Amino acid sequence: MPRTLLLAQDVPNLDVLNEAAEILRIGQLLVFPVNSGYVIGCDPFNSNATRHLNEVRGHVIDNIQTIVFSDLAAAGEVIEDKEIPSALVDALYSGDLTIVFNRIESFRPAITEFDELVSINFPAHPLVRELLRLSGPCAVSAAAPVGIGLPASIEDPQNYFGEQVDLYLDAGTTLGGSSTVINWTQRLPVLVRQGQFPIAELMKIFPYLEDTDPT
Question: Quick one: pLDDT at residue 209?
Fold first, then answer.
């Protein structure tokens, strides 16, 4: 039976958070919740861990690696310098927005393609952010085989991956939808995917936002 620990919504359990952070630090795989469902994550700087994550999901390498951070200060150490409007910061902390940036030269995650770009998100769950504060940034993908969306409960990834994943954090059923994604690698950002963060609000921040989302 895969090892599973309960991640309470309101009552922090430091033993659980420390154990999960250690799993990431030693290069193992962790399943945990974000707004839109459950993700599988690992240390982005550990090539063995990132390779194992891709093998578990079916030997797929994402074109742009999504990395979740505890806060903007942590993310600011790895992305190119940009002045991020306060309204955009609020959206990031809600978990409803993901932004693709150019990474700084010194940040070299252990991925093989498109590693000049990094997609950042801050999970809304406060205990997940505390976990990331303890572990450092975490590379994530959907906790499901390729072609299947993010699972809403822990049972699905447990069935998919079993003991190939070293630890599962169960926070119950997740209710959030997919995040809105923008690519801000050029002077003006481009809408990549419409999601939970309203496009009308984005247009207030970026009046010239280009929309490439086919939906």
Answer: 86
